Amino acid sequence: METEHFSGILAPALTAFTEQFEIDTERTVAHFQWLLKQGCDALVVFGTTSEANSLSVAERTRFLEYAISNGLDPRNVLPGTGCCSLPDSVVLSKHAIGLECPGVLTLPPFYYKAVSDEGLFRYFATLIERVGDDRLRIYLYHIPPISQVAISFDLIERLIREFPGVVVGIKDSSGDWEHTQQLIDRFAPGGFRVFPGNEMHLLPALRTGGKGCISAFANINPAILQEVFQKWQRPEAENLQEEVERQGRAVRQYPVIPALKAILAESRKDPGWENIRPPLVPLSAAQREGLLAELGAATRQ
Amino acid sequence: METEHFSGILAPALTAFTEQFEIDTERTVAHFQWLLKQGCDALVVFGTTSEANSLSVAERTRFLEYAISNGLDPRNVLPGTGCCSLPDSVVLSKHAIGLECPGVLTLPPFYYKAVSDEGLFRYFATLIERVGDDRLRIYLYHIPPISQVAISFDLIERLIREFPGVVVGIKDSSGDWEHTQQLIDRFAPGGFRVFPGNEMHLLPALRTGGKGCISAFANINPAILQEVFQKWQRPEAENLQEEVERQGRAVRQYPVIPALKAILAESRKDPGWENIRPPLVPLSAAQREGLLAELGAATRQ
Q1: Which of A20, A111, A146, A277 to mutate to test the interface with B (most CBs of B within 10 A)?
Q2: CATH topology for B8-221?
Q3: A8-230: CATH homologous superfamily?
Q4: Distance from CA of B89 to the nearest CA of A (A)
Q5: Closest to A209 in 3D by CA, of A244, A227, A232, A185
Q6: What is the pLDDT of residues B18-64, one digit of tens each?
Q7: Domain edges within chain A
Q8: What SS3 state is found at B93?
Q9: How close A268 comes to chain B (CA, Å)?
Q10: Can you tell me the distance from the alpha carbon of A10 to that of A280, in angstroms, rounded to the nearest whole number?
Q11: B57-73 confidence digits (pLDDT tens)
């Protein structure tokens, strides 16, 4: 990883919970260590996959402090900090930057729908002003299938123009390669860092000027993603990417977050990994069985 | 109003902000007093119209305490307490009940989409368990156009069955009269209190067993809604309801929250009422002019 900016394979790291739906801090930090050892360049703590928006602000700040004081290097962390409410996003962003995280991944406010670009611009501008820290680096988080509020090209252009060096990148979880490619074509030449939010688009993104990917899939097989990242200029990258896609497709037939948790529970012989905070629910036994069979079939021996 | 339950006209009360986007506590509480004086039976403090999900938990608890200590009778308040995160909803619900509010209006968790009824049931069941207060009365908040997460009939049935006397009503902001009517037909005979979230459906709801309405429109003309409520069994209710609909239609051509704020700013000669927290924005000058003209034309002289 470069000192100041993220690149490569980032995992939106899963959060483990106890049976009482409290963050299982120890199990989660052990997972972080595994992810970094297995090939993640950095971690998104508090992404969608982390069930971040099912956590309170206090849970998020306390847990990030816990993780760092238990060995997580903040320079490897891009925390999610975007909430519905401006003050919550300010508190989380300020906190993350204060802990020396090199950037934050920020959702647009997502309660109100059909909001204007002007309203979103005011939101981000006020956020930047209130954080009031030269170290702030914002990666925008575009995930319209879930947030239902999109970050338009016009908005990105305006934010980059008004806040150069502050609004520095984007996670594109549209799931739409055309959209990712357009983002790369339009903004990567100016230094904007584009990360598809889907492992399916890792190799195409690297070949056209993207910086890596931030994919839920990295929670279960970061090594193969790192291999694609290392070898993207070589012919063998094709086969690796195809295998990523086979595995990714097997997982994405199921609700992704409980599916990933079921895979970790199985591979670590640790059923506690299936705990998930409402409104999400674990996979059913039949789903779990189907997933593990299909993922096994999709994985090279 | 009955001692224990809400009925009649409830306003999801607007929140005033300063130019720096902080809650203008004094202006907001003055508005609460006006609403109650003008005919509201009770107030939803922290509804969608209140920009509640643009506020932090701390802002919400502090402001509710402020309002009560400045004369707002908690028995007239149904606070909105539903957030994306279970612990936030627990804190807000517990706080409201502790302050002697007779109930809370609770959104389903709205970040994750396509969640299961089982997941939503677990969410509400855990909320009720954690609040752990016999005084808790939950009014469900169904507003799929914004939350994008619906509260199904099956879920309502299960919640009523499992938590009789706790899950006692619903605000139906589907905007779909068929849906409201089905809710009334199915659940009102058992004592479940159904409030359409739209003034357009006030009279039809009262005639079929609904309890009143909780409508944004009540912020600007609670008196006429109260008149419909008082006279719903008399023939003149028809004309009153028609006037409500004419005025409501004039307002609903514009983004509703800034439109209502523009109307208050105009009628009170207080431009500060137009302040609105991002991501929402005030109406443009042209919108404001159009709105005031159309509302004027729709209002009886």
Answers
A1: A111
A2: TIM Barrel (3.20.20)
A3: Aldolase class I (3.20.20.70)
A4: 9
A5: A185
A6: 999 999 999 999 999 999 999 999 999 999 999 999 999 999 999 99
A7: 8-230
A8: helix
A9: 25
A10: 23
A11: 999 999 999 999 999 99
